[in-house]
């Protein structure tokens, strides 16, 4: 991997980092350090990733929790493996039942969008297949922080207060939301910066997951608690849904971009969107990052990719087109020809028939992990199971109640999923894991980070520091202030609806670890959050 070791010409408070024996990149310092501690105790990159992930459910509950989903791409013994640990809709829910219950659309919060959580199963499965240390030891740092507490970070405190006031405050008097406030606002308010938060319920739940390798969550006491609370407060999920759940090992999918293979997981995740965009963009030449032509083509490609993704991505067993057809060179060329000199409204094509945390970990033996987990929209559904600390996700919100839609709601079906891990290889050798979390920003972040790396030769930190854009809908694009104003104006003249944003969280939060030919690890972490690289 050849890149410019100097900084990109935008302010950053971090330098690119180098290490030999191990590296863990996360959005919270305590989680990164937990992963590194596990490496030093004899664990491998997989153990470190699990430890960091479990820790993040405690120290960053504003973005993820035990009740969410997870995906992973793992490089072990010179082979790539993919894990889809996203859960399906309960078997007792359907379009017909929701219509009968008075719903015309799926709400964001409450029991309706709750799907079967996959995170505990992901930890157990990764540990069983590739881990070196017992899960009890790997989860011990997370249990320690949950039991004895930790000081709340700046970024987390702001998101926590926003969730309590602007999101869940409207549901405060409803029975199914009562335990969110009891768990996350125990003093009648959320905790401020530097205040110590602890959750003994969360610690006890993590302990049961560790001691039973996840069985307690899906078949034991925790499953029974979820079932009971669901029945008592009008939920749809049952113990039978949890008992029948298993994560799935899948074959990652890729496109070759200028000699590098860019890997994502297949649907139901939206990693396909990033590959669709890169499949279009690889037919152009880009000589400079900050030009009107570069931004225009990137924006038009991502719009076309999303049009296809939002049309076709759903549970892989229900998809009506083949992935290889969508990623074919011929289809990429057809979509590429739709990019003209002005901004266009996106539309899907017809191929020939034939509230998230991201982390990366690597060890000195060559093992590498790209891992992501989320509850969605911050804390998720707002439903917290009493005496467990478990905040349940609201992934079902992405289902459609239109029975003709490819991603329509069905019992036991997995929905279009936003969280995606990425991985880069060259000549069948690992370059490393990368990811940018943040809802529908994620494939857009993947495209920008990969182009920053391959086309513009930026080192991992500079690739993350560079200002980002996000296509919202139609011709609307949000941009960070770091993008030059004359470029924004020129894009507006081409028909793009450009809006500068003063916020940071909507542009995603990323991590990168590359391995050089000599085995040295090179990492970058997100400057828009409390991102940290723990190195050895």
From TrEMBL:
Keywords from the named record: Hydrolase
A UniProt-annotated Pfam family: G_glu_transpept
GO molecular function: hydrolase activity
Residues passing through the membrane, by range: none
InterPro entries, sorted: GGT-like_enzyme, GGT_ssub_C, Ntn_hydrolases_N
Source species, domain of life: Bacteria
Protein name from the UniProt record: Gamma-glutamyltranspeptidase/glutathione hydrolase
Organism: Fonticella tunisiensis
